[in-house]
Write a structure and sequence with these properties.
- The chain has about 325 residues and is of the alpha+beta class.
- The chain folds into two domains: about 55 residues, no CATH class; about 230 residues, Deoxyribonuclease I, Chain A.
- The protein has a six-stranded mixed β-sheet, with no helix packed on it. A six-stranded mixed β-sheet has the order 5-6-7-8-10-9, covered by helices on one side.
- The radius of gyration is 26 Å and the shape is elongated.
Length: about 325
């Protein structure tokens, strides 16, 4: 590479060095450092790009708009085992109060410490595999708030191994409890088995109602239902499976333009908002439900109790 020239051309050196493929094959003749020059137009353009033409972040982060709200997030992580370090550095997920992940690929033989995330309590529900390979299923629950109860009403070994459901109850306030059901349904799941699984989950949610009349319980059901909400058949099916609950997600939840991940709640619409954000390590998008304020207290319809989560968890 010979830079011999009587002129001081802007960016000549940059153009020359941009052709280099290996340092071993590079030989520089007549570098002449005094002739290394940057165009004034380029300086002006770069200064403008870094100042008045700087673009704002295009991804909407609701937590910055509602910092006092409570939010719970669901994500099909496509292997928590492979992506745990990425999740530990995802600010959107870290800002959430409760996170629920499906398709974790977590094994019951794994040490729980490898899935620890600062400021979160963790409960894992691995899916057992009959082979040497990891099961692609399993659900993981993370909470910053006190956990009152946690259980797995439906495991992959139930109902022909096509649905799994977990339940997490946390305290938003001393007199306000939130029950969050997490559902994962495989595409091959028989509809009758799916109905049985959701029915069992709802029985567990009902059993967790407090006996105290001054305690209010809110309910949210989130998950990957593998039913495209954009299809009318999916809407009619889910309306019959979860009567009395509203589905809040309206945007695509996968990179393929489908809406397979749903959020259902009985919380009045003026008190909640639902958003989908982006995730570069999964082809599913995180879904976040934001509870902006708490609805007026109503006496719970059920007087049953549930056993608090054991300390071993």
């Amino acid at each position: 590479m010979d830079f011999t020239s009587s002129r001081k051309e802007a960016h000549t050196h940059y153009v020359g060095f941009s052709r280099v493929r290996t340092l071993q094959g590079l030989f520089i003749l007549n570098l002449c450092e005094a002739k290394i020059h940057i165009s004034d137009h380029v300086r002006q353009e770069m200064a403008a790009l870094r100042s008045n033409r700087r673009l704002p972040i295009s991804l909407y982060l609701p937590v910055t708009q509602n910092p006092s709200s409570f939010h719970v997030t669901f994500l099909n992580a496509r292997s928590l085992h492979s992506h745990i370090e990425l999740i530990r550095n995802d600010h959107s997920l870290l800002d959430s109060h409760v996170n629920m992940y499906c398709e974790t690929r977590v094994s019951h033989t794994d040490l729980t410490d490898i899935y620890h995330i600062n400021n979160f309590s963790m409960i894992q529900y691995p899916s057992y595999s009959h082979t040497q390979q990891r099961s692609p299923y399993g659900i993981a629950l993370y909470s910053k708030l006190p956990i009152i109860h946690s259980s797995q009403p439906v495991a992959m070994t139930d109902f022909s191994g096509a649905v799994e459901c977990t339940l997490l109850q946390v305290a938003l306030k001393p007199d306000i409890l939130l029950c969050v059901g997490c559902v994962y349904r495989t595409p091959r799941s028989d509809l009758s088995h799916f109905r049985l699984a959701v029915s069992r989950l709802m029985d567990h949610i009902q059993a967790c109602q407090s006996t105290r009349t001054d305690v209010q319980q809110l309910t949210v059901i989130m998950g990957d239902f593998n039913m495209d909400w954009f299809e009318s058949s999916a809407q009619s099916c889910m309306n019959s499976v979860l009567p009395g609950y509203r589905q809040l997600v309206t945007d695509c939840t996968t990179d393929y333009g489908s809406l397979l991940d749903h959020v259902y709640t009985d919380i009045p619409s003026q008190f909640v908002q639902c958003y989908t954000t982006e995730c570069y390590f999964s082809d599913h998008k995180p879904m976040s439900l934001y509870i902006l304020s708490y609805p007026p207290h109503q006496k719970p319809p059920c007087q049953m109790t549930c056993t608090p989560v054991s300390q071993e968890l």
